[in-house]
Amino acid sequence: MAPILKVEGLKKFYGRLEALKGVDFQVEEGEIFALIGPNGAGKTTTLRIVATLLTPSEGKVELRGFDVKKQPEKIRENISYLPEEAGAYRNLRGKDYLKFMANFYARTDDEASQFIKRAEGVADLGNRLAEKVGTYSKGMVRKLLLGRALMTRPALAILDEPTSGLDVINSLEVREIIKRYAREGISVLLSSHNMLEIEFLSDRVALVDKGRILDAGTPRGLKEKYQAENLETVFRSAVQ
Amino acid sequence: MKNFRNLLIKEIKDMLTPQLIISLLFMMALFYFIGGVTKKEAEKAAGKQKISILDQDGSEFSRQLLAGLQTMNFEVEKIKAADPAAAVDAARAGDTNLLVIIPPGFGESVAKFETKEIQTYTYMRNFSIMGTRSSGILRGVISAINTYLSDDFLKKKIPEFNPQNVKNPIKSKDFIIIKSRMAEGSAAMIAGFVASQSIIIPVILMMILIYSSQMVISAIAMEKQNKTLETLLTVPISRATIVSAKMLAAGLAGLLSAAIYMVGFRSYMGGVMGGIANAPGVSQVVQKLGLAFDAKALVILGISLFFAILCALALATILGVLAEDFRSAQSLIMPMIFLVMIPYFISMFADIKTLSLPIKLLLLAIPFSHPFLATQNIFLENYRAVLFGILYMAVFFAVMVVIAARIFSTDRVLTMKLRWRKKKVVL
User: Which among A36, A203, B330, B390 is most buried, taking Cβ atoms within 10 Å?
Assistant: First the structure.
């Protein structure tokens, strides 16, 4: 399969702090690729660069051949980003929020309606979509946002801690939705602290620590390589 | 254009919350109510003034004097009391604010052309502007009595002359000149009119600038606080569209807020200053002197106001990026308020021509000074200064927009924060 996303020698400086020290990875079409690592490892910075929110200090990021520095608008047409602590406009009703977001991507009203319908299916909030977002629980907002992120069937969905703040049942539902959409051809780049989640979801995993990728591979391949029972032990062995 | 409209509608919905509309309507109703009360009080004050009189003299002359006062817009209430102390008590129990005591022998002294003392007692029943007008009434009464007495003296001594001609042998015919225009009228009257009219424009301007700035700073801060900015920045729309939609929505909301506010404020000011503007003869003089805004002046003033609003919105956009949340946005509005208040007060109390050079330069460097100064400059036909102001604001706006767009198209929109604690970066 052809890589949809290519990241090469990616570096990012915040003043004198070097947050990324040369990150390389690729995401194939229809693949779920996960970045795992502790807080401050550089996962969110990597996702934000791919999402065109931050500009790379050095290195190359290409999505479908579009360069993140030179053609950020083209990249935005092909991605959707779900930040870890994202919110939705509290004064809008759930349905209006989805309509507002769908209008940026849809070329026709029919297409917008399709997007909204798809998002409603993912969010699964029923009649609550007619109420203002300000009245939603954290889990409901997260599902609404996931619906928004997947409704356009982007080439690459960038999901930062997709199940952050969700209870067990909601987390399970969200993981199943992500997996289903990936099977339908959407590529996913995600980050998570939850190793169990990563193991369940990801086709390939990159272990990130102190701004570098220590190793990458399938969860099974990594476990065999490090002779570990789970990804947590894999990570510990890779760091050591 | 579709994306811009989509974003603009969302921004307007976000800004014009029911809470904001209710509070604005409440303010308008409050101003309207206060204006109505003030207008009634002002009408009362301009009407017949009631005064209490204790006439201890009882002479033919004192009776004529009281009749004279009644013809001079005073309503005379005679008090029946044995002595001044009892009269003071009786008047205190009533509702008049002024008691005049004509002493015994007053008529006799007047007949001999001797100066005689009369006593006046002013009751200060409250300290509102209308309530403290008693001193003005007192001056009016004394002046009326003196006019009556002096006219009477003169009529008796030199009956062949008109007392007015004897007292005022010279009469002045007053003219006012503004640049090339001239009209007959009193300078005090015109100054009063200009003050009453020009107070409205700076207040409208100040409110529009502050409201619009607050809207745009809050809009950006709320995006940050509700964690919606990151998502918005990754949708396929240009950053310039995001910035301009926010600025336009804030401008419209600011204009609407200011308009609602001003309807109420105008009603309030109409109550306080309506008398001056409606004084007879003023409007003709004002027209002749070009002090009423014609279409050309209104267009120029409108352009000046428009550019000031644009400058405020662009500056507020940059300040909004510095805000972390809604609370910090509230403190970031302070620099804007200062920048608007400085020219507001200076233009109200000082003449820019007489200011020292550094203060003058500082004032002219603040873009919001120019529309404040534009009103007077248009009255004085100083169009060059008005056009310079518009040009300066256009340049200032362009520079601010470039800075704002640059901030929004770089990492700074997410990483730039005004905080006193150590900078924290999410990796």
Answer: A36
B291 inside domain:
yes
Identify which of A54, A86, A100 has the shortest CB distance to residue B6: A100
A86 Cα to chain B: minimum distance (Å) = 5
Whether residues B230 and A105 touch (CB distance < 8 A) is answered with no
| Burial annotation B237-268 (CB, 10 A radius, 16+ → b, else e) | bbbebbbbbbbbbbbbbbbbbbebbbebbbbb
Q: How sure is the predictor about B420, in pLDDT bands with cuts at 50, 70 and 90? A: very low
Same domain for B397 and B264: yes
Q: A13, A76, A84: which to substitute to probe chain B, counting the most B Cβ within 10 Å?
A: A76
Task: Give B80-138 pLDDT, tens digit per residue.
Answer: 888 999 999 998 888 888 888 999 988 888 778 787 888 888 888 776 655 566 667 77
Give me A14's structure tokens.
């915040």
- B229 part of a folded domain: yes
If asked whether residues B139 and B204 sit together in one domain, one would say: no
**In chain A, which residues have their Cβ closer than 8 Å to the Cβ of B425?**
14, 17, 19
Residue B424 in any domain: the answer is no
Cα distances (Å, whole numbers) of residue B277 to A113, A152, B195, B269, B286: 59, 63, 10, 11, 10
Mutate to test the interface with B, among A50, A100, A210 (most CBs of B within 10 A): A100
Tens digits of per-residue pLDDT, B289-303?
A: 777 667 787 788 888
**CATH code for the domain of A152:** 3.40.50.300
Which chain A residues contact residue B414 at CB under 8 A? 48, 53-54
If one counts the domains in chain A, the total is 1
Calculate mean pLDDT across residues A152-159: 94
Q: What is the domain extent for residue A39?
A: 3-239
Cross-chain residue pair A53–B2, CB shorter than 8 Å: no
CA B264/CA B253 separation, integer angstroms:
17
Helix (H) or strand (E) holding A192: strand A187-192
- Amino acid identity of B130? M
Domain boundary among B111, B136, B168: B168
Partners of residue B234 in chain A, C-beta under 8 Å: 51-53, 76, 79-81
Task: List strand residue ranges (DSSP E) for B181-223, in order.
Answer: 181-184
B278 backbone dihedrals φ, ψ, rounded to 5°: -95, 5
Which chain B residue shows the shortest CA-CA distance from A104?
B3
Distance from CA of A12 to the nearest CA of B (A): 10
Supply the ipTM of this predicted assembly: 0.92
Q: Is the pLDDT of residue B306 over 80?
A: yes
On whether residue B107 sits in a domain, the answer given is yes
